[in-house]
Design brief:
The complex is a heterodimer of chains A (about 280) and B (about 290). Chain A is mainly alpha-helical. Chain A has helices spanning about 10-40, 45-50, 65-70, 70-105, 110-120, 125-140, 145-155, 155-170, 170-180, 185-195, 200-215, 215-220, 230-240, 250-270, 270-280. Chain B has 15 helices and two strands. The model of chain B is unreliable at about 290-293 (pLDDT under 50). The chains are: A mainly alpha (about 280), B mainly alpha (about 290).
Chain lengths: ~280, ~290
């Protein structure tokens, strides 16, 4: 990495220190809303009713978090999110690995044409298809079902594109040797190629999971029954009656609870996530 | 020799077939069907008569659409430069590996992994009239408190602040990646010449990442044109539609008023706008990096 910034002292160093101070101030602004949220979540609702400046005073309490434990709804939504995001991730990994391998390393009629068409899918925004898709899912009675929530995300061309890139990077000699041993394509794919792409699978998997977990528009229109809400939609629905809510503190605790899983995943897999998100944006 | 086995054969196509089925069923067909819908008079029971471009003219004649289009353009025009500028600034400041800088990088990116619902919830707590974090801070300094989310002018601004807070991580990371590609000897040469930091920035650093700056700008334009959740959850487009973006218009027309033909037409218009930006991205990313400066 660039130790280069340190090579031209001392004026440069001064400039750097100044930049870092500015960034420090920005990071305080960045954290302030979260600190505020945490503060609200550990105050009793009755106290907050009188004024939120109570956040700056004792006593603090965990009662809002215990109330989440009694609210089965939030847990149900959490479970739905796990099923939907997990299912969608598995689907994307299977489809993208197969297709990525096919496009990158095999020959078949119309291969190039088909790949170009798939790449066009990268530029297609959800908004262009969502109305027709919603109608289709109505015909097949797929709304308010796990499969109906999982399916749309599986059509994303990004996974195919990423996996094709990874498969292309594997040296040709590896499968040529296997072909000489008369191994079938499926066997080569399963036994030799797939294990080599595990890091790529992890990156794509985490990225897909996060996207599915955070997806907003599709579950908003597809899951209309309260017990089929994902956590994202569920939290949005308790937000819509912000004014007459059960209490600011409880709402804040819900927000903390709902963001914990993604933040934990982020802390554990920060590098994968940054790679995937940047790769997904640049394409 | 192995070429003999790898030879073009239809059976190999089976690997891509499962994805292609999903691709056609969930992207290609809905796209075509959406265009079909936009050319027909549609009610809840399905498409009726062919009415040509009528739905499109209805959209363009709708003052609410024009207002949403205007809001979206203003939003993009303000939020994208802020995102690109702040992202570039942070990347320059944090382009070193110390414990502090990697912590701050992680911090600035962390908000990007949250869902729009959580992000808006956090900021609604900040903007609560008279009782939010901003109201508390204003009171402390003796400033006037503002009802950010329900005052026209301020509502779209508040959505913008929230969006910048949410999306800042990606531009920063993309710029950091680009900064690390700059060859070290350029800086060493500058050090020998005793160039001051400002000259190094404007003569070496910025020209070297000019292409990335273009790319990040286009990516952000595409992303911010799709503004929806923040506005819907924080202001519900209000007051008087002053913070209603295009996507929210499509949502309201297509899914709340069930005017499906009109909604489909509006979504194709948005698609065209985004397609233009995507074309620009393709042109920039395939251009040789040499002539970028």
């Amino acid at each position: 990495m660039s130790s280069n910034s340190e090579t031209y002292k001392p004026e440069a160093l001064k400039a750097n220190r100044w930049l870092l101070w500015m960034a420090g101030i920005l990071s305080i602004i960045m954290m302030a809303p979260v600190a505020w949220l945490l503060g609200l979540s550990i105050k009793a609702n009755q106290e907050l009713m009188l004024g939120t400046d109570a956040v700056f005073r004792f006593p603090y309490t965990l009662v809002n978090y215990f109330n989440i434990l009694h609210s089965s709804q939030v847990f149900g939504w959490f479970f739905n999110s796990v099923v939907v995001a997990g299912g969608q991730t598995i689907g994307v990994l299977i489809l993208s690995s197969l297709a990525g391998y096919g496009f990158a390393r095999l020959e078949f009629p119309f291969r190039k044409t088909l790949f170009v068409i798939v790449l066009f899918g990268l530029t297609l925004p959800e908004q262009a298809v969502i109305i027709a898709r919603h109608q289709m899912f109505t015909w097949f009675g797929l709304h308010n079902s796990y499969i109906g929530l999982m399916l749309p995300g599986m059509s994303s061309a990004l996974g195919v594109f990423l996996m094709a890139q990874f498969f292309r990077a594997i040296p040709k000699e590896i499968d040529e040797a296997a072909l000489l041993d008369n191994a079938s394509q499926l066997r080569i794919f399963w036994k030799i190629m797939l294990p080599l792409t595990l890091p790529a699978q992890a990156t794509l998997g985490i990225f897909t999971f996060l996207q599915a977990w955070n997806d907003y528009w599709w579950p908003l229109i597809s899951a209309t029954k309260k017990d089929m809400f994902t956590l994202t939609i569920g939290i949005a629905s308790s937000q819509s009656n912000f004014a007459q809510t059960d209490g600011l503190g409880f709402l804040a605790a819900q927000a903390v609870f709902a963001s914990l899983p993604v933040l934990i995943v982020y802390l554990l897999f920060q590098r994968h996530i940054v790679t995937a998100v940047s790769g997904g944006a640049v394409k | 020799m192995a070429e003999h086995y790898r030879r073009s054969q239809a059976r190999n196509g089976l690997f891509v077939l499962p994805y292609l089925i999903v691709f056609v069923a969930l992207l290609v067909f809905p796209l075509g069907w959406g265009i079909w819908l936009s050319l027909h008079k549609v009610d809840l029971f399905g498409p009726g008569r062919f009415i040509g471009m009528t739905n499109y003219w209805r959209v363009f004649a709708d003052p609410i659409f024009l207002q949403a289009l205007r809001n979206t353009i203003i939003f993009v025009a303000v939020s994208v430069p802020v995102l690109v500028g702040l992202g570039l600034f942070l990347a320059l400041a944090l382009n070193r590996t110390t414990r502090t800088t990697s912590f701050m990088r992680g911090l600035f990116f962390s908000s990007s992994v949250l869902s729009v619902t959580i992000v808006t919830l956090i900021w609604r707590f900040v903007f609560i009239p008279g009782d939010g974090l901003l109201a508390q801070v204003s009171r402390y300094f003796g400033w006037e408190t503002i009802n950010f989310l329900s005052t026209s002018g301020w509502s779209l601004f508040s959505v913008g602040v929230t969006t910048v807070w949410w999306c800042l991580g990606l531009p920063m990371m993309l710029f950091l990646a680009a900064l690390q590609q700059i060859p070290n000897d350029l800086y060493e040469a500058a050090a020998l010449d005793n160039a001051n930091p400002w000259r190094v920035l404007t003569r070496i650093t910025l020209p070297s990442i000019a292409r990335t700056i273009m790319l990040v700008t286009i990516i952000q334009i595409v992303m911010q044109f799709q503004l929806f959740g923040q506005a819907q959850l924080m202001t519900n487009g209000g007051p008087n539609g002053t913070s209603r973006p295009l996507v929210m218009y499509i949502y309201e027309v297509g899914f709340l008023r069930w005017d499906i033909g009109k909604g489909a037409a509006a979504s194709q218009i948005l698609f065209l706008i985004i397609l233009c930006a995507a074309m620009a991205q393709y042109l920039v990313s395939t251009r040789k990096s040499g002539d970028a400066a």
